[in-house]
Amino acid sequence: MKETVIKVENLSKAYQIGQIGTGTISRDIERFVRTKVLGKEDTFYKIGEANDRSVKGSSDIVWSLRDINFEIQQGDAVGIIGKNGAGKSTLLKVLSRVTGPTEGNIKVKGRIASLLEVGTGFHPELTGRENIFLNGAILGMRKKEIRAKLDEIIDFSGVERYIDTPVKRYSSGMYVRLAFAVAAHLDSEILIVDEVLAVGDAEFQKKCLGKMGEISKGEGRTVLFVSHNMSAVSRLCTKGILISNGKILQTGNVEEVVETYLKVAVGNKSADSWDDLSKAPGSEFFKLRDVRMIGPAGQVTGFFDVTEPVRAEFTYEVLKDGERYTHGLNVFNDQGVHILSSHHSNSESLEIPSKKGVYRTSVEIPANLLAEGGYELSFAIMKYKPFEVIFHKMDILGFSVVDELQSEDGRGSYSGKLPGLVRSHLKWTNI
Amino acid sequence: MTKNGEQNWDLVITGRTSLFDLKFADVWNYRDLLVLFVRRDFVSFYKQTVLGPLWFFIQPVFTMLVYTFVFGNLANIPTDGLPKPLFYLCGITAWNYFADCLTKTSTVFRDNANIFGKVYFPRLIMPLSIVVSNLARFGVQLILLIGMMGYYAVQGVHLHISAALALFPFLVLLMAVLGLSCGLLITALTTKYRDLAFLVTFGVQLLMYATTVIYPLSEAKEKYPAYAWIIELNPMTGIIETFRYAFLGEGSFTIPGLMYSTVISLVLLFFSIIVFNRTEKNFVDTI
């Protein structure tokens, strides 16, 4: 069995929110007298509550982390994932000793180097070379270690030509390259990395990801990695820890944890049904009975690979005879961008007047169209002559498009993020 | 190292640590960083200034001239029989080092919140590096003082440098310790109570008048024997008097006086490091 290098026990971290300042001296004195002089229990932290941004709390104390327990074995690459504000960054800060825990403890074996930001302590007036030494020392390296690796660092950064120029004259890209190069050559047994890879160009990101993979896989060092880039997490990490509202939701195999995260984060509604017609969405003309997302094997699912078609099925009950109508849908991505709109323009219901009864219709968004990410569907019923939208309901279904890095996904050997709203296979030809 | 059944842990991060865990070993491990910080301060100060280190001269020279005029000539405060400019410059040089150490370390948490919020290293490294960096400025001013002494010696003023000059390194250390301790206490408190920062600016000013920078202790004792103890209570007084005695041969240098300053400095240092270490753990959350 591999050795445990990090052991986190009952870790909690409370934050005081709101204004700190007015009345703090008097409250601190009061608290001191209550707890230290009178020997009473500290009620300060008793009233805390889970850290849920959207709900207005009744207390000034929020628990950013609450009773976190986990162990990390030597050589593991662990991805820490969770929504914004879930407590990931707090966990990293506590692990890297930037701030102390409120309760509980962390036991560590070996040297920890943390990279919560690239280029911490870079001084604009100093040259690249001087900053390598300064930044390396801030990250915990001894001078002779840095000197031994200097050539390697300069080489990796790719800014050799400017190495004796003050970094204030660097482009932001060069700055980041140099900073990451220092961090990548840290000699610690445990490396903690926050989402620093969100910077730099694609080529450099790939280099960074490659270097990190090398660190965890090749050199057997332990890496903790926080990122929103799920494909990077899946690729680099073997284990995952999912945090939600300051608590651990799931730990384990990285694929499983990423899948749970996508479910939680996107708030997937991959299926819904209404037995009670009075509560079902719809109009006087029709009511929805059942909606679902269907995967390639015919199963209900909220996850589609970029190479798979995305199919949705709608079952509804028509309540009136004699109308001509058709269906339509809109697709929005998780930033609320309207990606596409489609009408079922060749439906027979446009030609033949409706009869009461239950109908089912299905729509398929082709494979290799949507980019990775979360999506929401809206469903509409409309008439053409004259044009009228009888019914339009937003967010009726949700799904995620994920990139499981199969060979046919148009990436080739590129493993970084492919930006863009759509992700289509284009035809490339050398002429 | 904590024994934990089957394993030895290199590091245990907990919410509560012993009050007296001063983490000196940690500071020692990061000594290279201290050197690099000092270097950074030094290099960044010179870059893109026209006059460079000349700035170190300008401030004490003008202060000396103003003091000579206001306190020496207008107010006619005696200077232990020493040439007035020399008397003031000697006090200013010593006082400036102490005051610089104090004011610059007193904002260490606020000024470095950005770095401290992103990476761990023993926080004490930062104030220590400031104290060491300030030595550069002190050194330049000392050269100015020695130059002035040379000038007056050539003019025929009899200056007897005393054997107490051997205490010089110790005096510098004491000033650094005292300035650092006060600065550490203030920076620790200002993370929570921001208004204390205002106290520093005029507090240091006022403290100078409670120290024997612009008047000799002997004069204060003679004129206000009932209140001179307040001035003697100030640990900087003993240091400055010894400093002046060492360089210019005049001053109320007493062994108990210096002992008192030493004890106070050490007690303050110990206490302030405890407070500083307690603050450093969570200050990121409040700043």
TrEMBL record, chain A:
Residues 50-270 form the ABC transporter domain. Keywords: ATP-binding, Nucleotide-binding, Transport. PROSITE patterns: ABC_TRANSPORTER_2. SMART domains: AAA (SM00382). GO terms for cellular component: membrane. GO terms for molecular function: ABC-type transporter activity; ATP binding; ATP hydrolysis activity. InterPro entries: AAA+_ATPase, ABC_transporter-like_ATP-bd, ABC_transpr_TagH-like, Bact_Polysacc_Export_ATP-bd, P-loop_NTPase, Wzt_C. Belongs to the ABC transporter superfamily. PANTHER family: TEICHOIC ACIDS EXPORT ATP-BINDING PROTEIN TAGH (PTHR46743:SF2). This is ABC transporter ATP-binding protein.
Automatic annotation (TrEMBL), chain B:
GO terms for biological process: lipopolysaccharide transport. It is found in: Cell inner membrane; Cell membrane. It holds the Pfam family ABC2_membrane. Residues 51-279 form the ABC transmembrane type-2 domain. InterPro entries: ABC2_TM, ABC2_TM_bact-type. One of its GO terms (cellular component) is plasma membrane. One of its GO terms (molecular function) is ABC-type transporter activity. Keywords: Cell inner membrane, Cell membrane, Membrane, Transmembrane, Transmembrane helix, Transport. It comes from the Bacteria. It is a multi-pass membrane protein. Coiled coil: none annotated. Belongs to the ABC-2 integral membrane protein family. This is Transport permease protein. It comes from Flavobacterium silvaticum.
